[in-house]
């Protein structure tokens, strides 16, 4: 069984901090298509992408759990 993650909090932070998904994708070093695949649970976020996003958002690693690992 594949785990599906709820990225609603991540989507809100993207809008708040970056304005657009495209800006966020560039900031973490991936394409818009790659970000879309991640947000749609087709491809997992890498540890590097998660760490980069946490730095960008100013969140702690423990907060990353709620942002990146909340199950649907």
Automatic annotation (TrEMBL):
Record Pfam families: DUF739 (PF05339)
InterPro entries xrefs: Cro/C1-type_HTH (IPR001387), DUF739 (IPR008003), Lambda_DNA-bd_dom_sf (IPR010982)
Domain HTH cro/C1-type: start-end pairs: 14-64
The organism's place on the tree of life at top rank: Bacteria
Protein name in the entry: DUF739 family protein
């Amino acid at each position: 069984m594949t785990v599906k993650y709820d990225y609603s909090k991540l989507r809100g932070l993207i809008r708040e901090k970056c304005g657009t998904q495209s800006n966020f994708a560039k900031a973490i070093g991936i394409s818009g298509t790659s970000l879309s695949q991640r947000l749609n649970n087709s491809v997992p976020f890498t540890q590097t992408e998660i760490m980069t996003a946490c730095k960008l958002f100013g969140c702690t690693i423990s907060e990353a759990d709620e942002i990146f690992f909340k199950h649907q």
